[in-house]
Amino acid sequence: MNLADVTPPIALGPLDGRYRPAVAPLVDHLSEAALNRARIHVEVEWLITLCDGVPGVTQGAVVPGAPGLSDADRAYLRGIPEAFGAEEIAELATIERETVHDVKAVEYFVKRRLASAPDVLGDGTVLPGVGELVHFACTSEDVNNLSYALMVQGAVRSVWLPAATALADQVADLAREHAAVPMLSRTHGQPATPTTLGKELAVLAHRLRRQLRRVEGAEYLGKLNGATGTYGAHTVAVPGVDWPAVSKHFVEHLGLVWNPLTTQIESHDWQAELYADVARFNRVLHNLATDVWTYISLGFFVQIPVPGATGSSTMPHKVNPIRFENAEANLEISSALLDTLASTLVTSRLQRDLTDSTTQRNIGTAFGHSLLAVDNVRRGLGALAVGTTTLDADLDANWEVLGEPIQSAMRAASVAGVPGMDNPYERLKELTRGQRIDAAQLREFVAGLGLPDDVAARLSALTPATYTGLAEQLVRDYLA
User: Which residues form the Adenylosuccinate lyase PurB C-terminal domain (predicted)?
Assistant: First the structure.
């Protein structure tokens, strides 16, 4: 059996197969069908602008002689992209097989709808007579750059950003919930100054939210200025019109930021900036996934078993941290694609080459793997419980970490004029480095230092579990 001949077609990639449910919302924004729908939307809005004119820029229509449109005409035109579904996708594909040009196929598709407008609106509609205003003075990139900007804007604002924000909020909620849970830290993988579980999660939530603020502030640029960005065809066909003002009005009407200086293509710098920020979010999230994986391996987090699920095909006891491992892999794939997009899209030979055409068709894949990772981490975090017993035992087994506050207190006492405080670091190093000590040994050492009574009492009362500094307060004060 040739699997390529199976109907319905088998997906080549996992995003359209195994992981389809997690990434399906992106199809409405970043699929090939979504691209064509966006192109139709741009063509329709440009046609309406040419007929209606631009207040303060033109007297009546932008193109002299263009008829005024009725409300019914505008509603019909805007209904073309709104009704773009399975039948329309198939029809457009048929046209493209004839034109062997995707944007030209869109132009012909819209013209067909203009020709058939009387069937819906009656003979009084002017739409059959404005067919030559479809794609007027445009190069394909005028339509494509605006379409991609709208698509990416929609995907980020409607799908990716809400999911990523919900994840950051989930991490922040966990941080607040566990702000006071003491935990032995590991610097360089070795026992170090205690912290709290919540404070460490708060650091990650803070980092994620900082990247999200950058993504939220992204600009989505667009242009409409012809084959080499000079408005050449515009000014020859219709001289006397302030075409840059018309272009600016149109781009902003679409909800985008106008780029006044381009070659044939919009320079794509905004895309590179956005993709770099999303990739950086990915990498912070990757750090969260590896840290949580490690906390699970240490027993600081315990995974809640899913009824009926299998952890290992041969070891029945196992509950593997697969959500975080899957997230790592998908974040790496997403970031690699986003890096490629960011580095290649900013370069176009002279006034135009076509490398961006294929490159941009992978935007959906890049966001899809990131969205899948976000989904995995959210589900993984939702199935965790704190391993309190392990955390407490780990702290109690590492009293030597209190060497830091003791030698620091000795330094402060020395500055205050207390005698016998010489070489505090070296004395604690001799006591603790490379060896385990218990509470009794440490308190005996403190008692023999000759510290002021209040300082000695404070140090004697200290335990690894209480030596967490301002960790809980930091979560409360600085995690928005």
Answer: 348-468
